[in-house]
Amino acid sequence: MKKNSILPHIIAICIAASLWGVDGVILTPKLYQLDVSFVVFIIHFIPFVLMSIFLFKEYEKLKYFTKQDFFLFTLLAIAGGSLGTLSIVKALFLVNFQKLTIVVLLQKLQPVFAITLSIIFLKEKVNIRFIIWASVAVIAAYIMAFGFELPEADFSNNAIKAYLYAAAAALFFASGTVISRKIATRHSFHTATFYRYGFTTLFMLLIVSSFGTITNITQATFNNWIVIVIISLTVGSGAIFLYYFGMLKVKASVATICELFFPLTAVILDLILHGNQLTIIQWFATALLIISILAITKSNVTKETKLL
């Protein structure tokens, strides 16, 4: 168990990414009539209130925070917690959650951004084996969604805005992955999750208060609140706990490849719920994506075993 201690952490990140896929396909689309900023605020606010009750002792750690800790959590709240989520949800709202270029663009750009940023800021080293399998994973994820064809081009005003929001989200989430890894080396996953939600809640409270979208709290229907609570307690906070548990030992460059379980889950759910059949080539690409992630996982588990 000690030799394979990194494996549970990698699995945790894959499960977290899968939960985000469930959210993107099944849950968040049901909140389309609400303002994006309110949605992002409330799905952080509710979990943070609950965490404040059950993890109240985390507040004591504030007195030990350094300037760097405050900076990192603030940066994470702005980038990964707020702007990243705002951007992708806005992008999906603009195209009515249709399976177009948006999610694919997000997931294909994010690993590229994250690996680049992890090398620059975290000084993570990547070998040729990792580069090859990471490239295969990204290409396989694209083929899984589109085959060998180019994605459908839509140059309407909403679509162009959505593409820009998706690209921005990819950069913000990639930054969040790198910052999360840095935080995970300094704090427990409980603390990392608690303050990620805390700082994001405060930042989003400023946003919804400034733009008046806090009034959505009276406009949300009973069904909206059911979905919000489900997101808050499962695919939201639950996934983040798993994610930070994983980030304790998994490098940002490896974590971003594991996060490709997000589009993988989305494709499978689309097949089950909407009957969108995959071609033989797409099934092959799906298998290749899984093999690529397993190869990267095996490489990192083997590396850790040698170190032990």
Structure explained in plain terms:
With about 300 residues, the protein is mainly α. The chain has one domain. The protein has twelve helices and no strands. It has helices spanning about 5-25, 35-55, 65-95, 100-120, 130-145, 155-185, 190-210, 215-220, 220-245, 250-260, 260-275, 280-305. α2 (about 35-55) packs across α3. The N and C termini lie close together (about 10 Å). The mean pLDDT is about 85.
User: What order do the SSEs take from the amino end to the carboxyl end, as H and E?
Assistant: HHHHHHHHHHHH
Oligomer category = single chain
**Span of the ends, CA to CA:** 12 Å
What is the general shape? Answer: globular
Overall structural class, as computed from helix and strand content, comes to: mainly alpha
Q: How much helix, percentage-wise, in residues?
A: over 70%
Number of helices: 12
- Nearest-integer average pLDDT: 83
Q: How many individual domains? A: 1
Strand content: under 5%
Unreliable residue stretches:
none
Per DSSP E runs of 2 or more residues, the count of β-strands stands at: 0
Radius of gyration equals 19 Å
Largest sheet: none
